[in-house]
Design a protein that fits this description.
By secondary structure, the chain is an all-alpha fold. Helix content is 77%, strand content 0%. It contains 11 helices and no strands. It has helices at residues 2-19, 22-25, 30-42, 50-68, 79-86, 89-113, 118-147, 156-182, 185-207, 216-238, 258-291. The protein is globular. The termini are far apart.
């Protein structure tokens, strides 16, 4: 059942990239976090903190802003048209930069500090993820045109995009699993979402020129909506474990303050030291008496 729902969700995400710009689809992925939090509250009885509810509201508000100011996608009639976009100098420079950064992270930083710095594995996932989204969009558009009667499978560019999707997704999932195995999910998820979404929007703006023809106010509104979604996502992830901590449940005056705990801890530590020193002195005295 779980695998079926995951497959259905990924297929729906794939179809969404074929019909809408990545600038719109990628940030709206935060809505899945809200659904997960709500289902966890209902089914698993994992109560949301008040700040977590605020994070959900921020994600919804930011998504509405993005949808209202989303750019209109220019019609694409052939995969060759997408290939021309992918081979333009600006996007080739972006792809070259991504490949160089990934090689540096994989062969230099990952062996040294990959298991101590969360940005290494998540950086690799995010960089490869931005390329995989561009390839998924190109492949999805090609399949959409094929189903409409314009066969795009006869072009080698379609199969090239399919190969890029396979390579990027495998590498992305590999390092994402490493990040989740090494670090806490509450740390990995917001960092990965922020980096992945930012790089994907940047790649889409360069390749598909999503912001061409839009006014400065509209672009600023989209960026503001994106920032609101990111803030809500980080807030939701960082507060989801608050209800498990007694200090966030309103334990009341019976729970000691930090200074009280420190004072008590220091007093216990000093008392223990005094007892140990006292026992040590008594042992020395007894040894001296035995020697005499």
């Amino acid at each position: 059942m779980v695998y079926c729902t995951v497959i259905v969700g990924e297929v729906a995400n794939f179809v969404a990239y074929a019909f809408a710009p990545a600038v719109l689809v990628t940030p709206l992925g935060a809505l899945s976090i809200i659904v997960s939090a709500v289902l966890a509250d209902i089914i698993l009885k994992e109560k949301l903190h008040h700040l977590g509810i605020l994070g959900c509201v921020m994600c919804i508000a930011g998504s509405i802003i993005i949808v209202i100011h989303a750019p209109r996608e220019s019609p694409i009639n052939s995969v060759l048209q997408i290939w021309d976009m992918a081979t333009q100098p600006a996007f080739l420079a972006y792809v070259g930069s991504v490949i160089v950064l990934v090689f540096i992270l994989v062969f230099h930083f990952a062996p040294k500090c990959g298991h101590t710095n969360v940005l290494v594995f998540t950086g690799i996932c995010s960089l490869m993820g931005s390329l995989s989204v561009m390839s998924v969009k190109a492949l999805g558009t090609s399949l959409k045109l094929t189903f409409e009667g314009k066969n795009q499978l006869i072009y080698p560019e379609t199969w090239f995009f399919m190969l890029v999707v396979a390579i990027c997704v495998i590498m992305q999932m590999n390092y994402l699993n490493k990040a989740l195995d090494t670090f806490n999910t509450a740390v990995v998820s917001p960092i990965y979402y922020v980096m992945f979404t930012t790089l994907t929007i940047l790649a889409s703006v360069i390749m598909f020129k999503d912001w061409d023809g839009q006014s400065g106010g509209t672009i600023v509104s989209e960026i503001c909506g994106f920032i609101v979604v990111l803030s809500g996502t980080v807030l939701l992830h960082t507060t989801k474990d608050f209800e498990r901590c007694p200090s966030f449940r309103g334990a009341g005056p019976s729970s000691p303050t930090l200074s009280t705990r420190l004072y008590t801890g220091n007093a216990d530590f000093l008392l223990k030291q005094d007892e140990e020193s006292g026992s040590l002195d008594s042992n020395l005295c007894s040894r001296r008496q035995e020697s005499y």
